[in-house]
Amino acid sequence: MKPKEIIDRVLDFNNPPRVGYHLKYGHYSDFRSFDRTTDKRPDLEWQKPEFFADRFPQYLDFDGFLHLDDFGNLWGKMSHDLTGGGEVLEGSLKDWNNLDKIKMPDWDDPKRYAHLPALKEKQADYFNIGWFSGFPFSMMRKMRKMENFLMDIIIEKENVLKLNDMVVKMMLGMIDNYGKAGADCIFFCEDWGLQDRMLIHPDLWREMFKPSFKVLCDRAKQYDMKVFMHSCGYIFDILEDLIEVGIDLFQFDQPNLMGLERVAKVINGRATLMAPADIQESLPTGDRDKIEKNAVELVNLFHKNGGYIAYDYGDYRTIQVKQEWAQWMRDKFYEVGGTPENS
Question: Same domain for 126 and 173?
Fold first, then answer.
């Protein structure tokens, strides 16, 4: 059975012969990237502060690296940071009075997707992922900076919703392009949780952001694309809402955080979980027994005629997890979830 058919069956709870796999670092995956083209400009790459001396002289003494993104936000990361991450230092929308001057990136330009039909033909046996860096909240909070945007949601609702409409319009164009090119899903990252609660009250999320989720998911469904969502932290309070608007798969790196049995009770048979052994409670301990038990628990709780995809965390170095420890997890997934060779 081809990888795409297996993932289709996993997502539809249609008795796949094994769990799905999205393992990295040279290990097996049923998925392939299906991305739009991106610009290759020096200022979009990490540079020493001197590179931006004319535009951002206030950061000449910054102990690290800087880059711009397509929205015009300035990012920084410290010199000792070995990850590809960082955080926004200067948002592109410093004053709401400049909202009408904001221009969205041309991520909805069909030319950025022109190569995808040929790629789809080449990767037809696999499940092709159309990548989004985030949904509206993720993009807007960077333009305003997080500490400002969380206040904006309360005191600048009209402006937030206006900016939201601008972002959603661009994203609908992106979904159209991915759909016409033959993507099997869209996959976005948008963190909504802290350790024990959401960033904002669930009722406020339902008022301000749930409608956009529904609009975007509905557009994806017009092309028979699934919708995958990554989120860090505690979002249990809106799981029902997310399923309602059309999220087909949740990618959690901390699956234990909200209580595995509690999450399974809500999503089983309705949405799929894609997750590694927990990156807080299990993998960083280096405790083989704990890691393997967590892997078995994930398969047993969520793989019910489908519903589970085993996953590799993307940055083990940062959380100080040895590949040996991650391999214990992978081997246990293969043991209890079935190997690709037997599918």
Answer: yes
Are residue 12 and residue 54 in the same domain, yes or no? Answer: no
Q: Tokens 């083209």 belong to which residue? A: 37
| Ramachandran region, residue 200 (left: φ > 0; alpha: ψ -120 to 50; beta: rest) | beta
The residue whose two tokens read 């990361």 is 77
Q: Are residues 138 and 184 in the same domain?
A: yes
For 81-135, how does the pLDDT look when each residue is reduced to its tens digit (9 = 90+)? 877 789 999 999 999 999 999 999 999 999 999 999 999 999 999 999 999 989 9
28 and 46 belong to one structural domain: no
Residues 21 and 340 sit within 8 Å (Cβ to Cβ): yes
Report how far residue 25's alpha carbon sits from residue 193's, in angstroms, rounded to the nearest whole number. Answer: 28
Structure tokens at 333: 């997934």
CATH number of the domain encompassing residue 304: 3.20.20.210
Flag whether 147 is in a domain. yes
CB atoms within 10 A of CB 63: 9
Domain contains 168: yes
Q: Which residues pair with 31 in a beta bridge?
A: 127
Element (H, E) at 222: helix 210-222
196 and 73 within one domain: no
Q: Which domain holds residue 66?
A: 42-94
Token duo for residue 92: 């592109």
167 and 232 in a single domain? The answer is yes
- Find tokens 């610009």 and name the residue: 39
As a whole number of angstroms, the distance between CA 128 and CA 125 comes to 9
Q: Which tokens in the block code for residue 232? A: 């860090």
**Count of structural domains within the chain:** 2
Q: What is the rounded distance in angstroms from the CA atom of residue 268 to the CA atom of residue 34? A: 28
Q: Which two tokens stand for residue 122?
A: 């080449």
Q: List, for residues 141-188, the tens digit of each pLDDT value.
A: 999 999 999 999 999 999 999 999 999 999 999 999 999 999 999 999
Scanning the chain, the segments in alpha helix (DSSP H) are 3-12, 116-122, 136-144, 146-155, 157-181, 202-208, 210-222, 239-245, 260-267, 288-302, 323-337
Flag whether 205 is in a domain: yes
Determine if the pTM surpasses 0.85: yes
The amino acid at 213 = F
* Strand 74-78, strand 64-68: pairing: antiparallel
Q: Which two tokens stand for residue 52?
A: 């931006």
